[in-house]
Predict the structure of 3-methyl-2-oxobutanoate hydroxymethyltransferase.
Amino acid sequence: MSTRPPATAGPTPGADGPSPGTGGAVPARPRLTVGSLAQLKATGMPITMVTAYDFPSARVAQDADVDVVLVGDSAAMTVLGHDSTLPVGMTEMLVLAAAVRRGLRTPLLVADLPFGSYERSDEHAIDNAQRFVKEAGADAVKLERGGTSADRARAIVAAGIPVMGHVGLTPQTAGQLGGFRAQGRTASGATRIAEEALALQESGCFALVLEAIPAAVTEQLMPYLHVPVIGIGAGPATDGQVLVFHDLLGMSAGKPARFVKRYADLHEQMVRAVGRYAEEVRIGKYPGPEHTYGIDAEELRAFRESLAARAD
Ligand SMILES: Nc1nc(=O)c2c([nH]1)NC[C@@H]1CN(c3ccc(C(=O)N[C@@H](CCC(=O)O)C(=O)O)cc3)CN21
Ligand SMILES: CC(C)C(=O)C(=O)O
Ligand SMILES: [Mg+2]
């Protein structure tokens, strides 16, 4: 069982109930920890991760029983409508992460340190990582690239907060990488990614994300990586996969990345539902009697008299 109380009042209905088919005798899956991910890697059980940015998307991740939920800085694009991840800051990320926390019970909650929140100094990076833990209830934070980022990772880990590293296509520095395009497609490019991944691992990161690199590069790299590796566009050799919530549900605008598989077309479904609602309002079909409130006939009569008296 969880060693922490449920995150909130208003938990996902059924989220901490018994598992289906257990007759109610078996408690819900315990809350995942950094250690559980290492255990999944050790046993060869693929790790499942998805982004979430608010209470309803967190409830979906909870009820779908994924292992890890990332409050990604991709929020800048998926929920705030920017065309890069750069504009989002700690203020916005803290609001989103706290909402996600309220919808989650069992998955590990990781929050993306946004652009500008960790580069300046170890102290600044620790401050912001601590804000995610203290103010939003995050379990861990994620940061991009090796180099000085690996030093920041080491400092945050030393301060007691688990860090996930992210290499390959790192959207916060996409400008230097030629845009949103696959990385590590040359020997030198792949070597740079390997060096960054190893530096982050050496710094004490509990897990790594590999984004948009050739599957064969991932395959060569995996034997050197002893922490759980989560891929997004990195092929099948990783210990798990992550996708952006809006991408896999068909809710994101624009051309999806090559690695995106759409498991639903929710944008289309939502447009149809809202369109039907608007149409029913226009033709007077909504609201129906079942959506309206009644009043006692005597109370209504008295009310009409009171109105009439006012008008006199
Ligand atoms: N909704 C969403 N999903 C994501 O996965 C995501 C974001 N947003 N925002 C930040 C980055 C950007 N992402 C991307 C975007 C495109 C490719 C991609 O596959 N690009 C193609 C075409 C590049 C080109 O125009 O040359 C490629 O083959 O690399 C990869 C990652 C991943 N991240
Ligand atoms: C795609 C994942 C790894 C991410 O960093 C994000 O959503 O911001
Ligand atoms: Mg991110």
Observations:
- Strands lie at 47-51, 68-71, 108-112, 140-144, 163-168, 207-211, 229-232, 240-243.
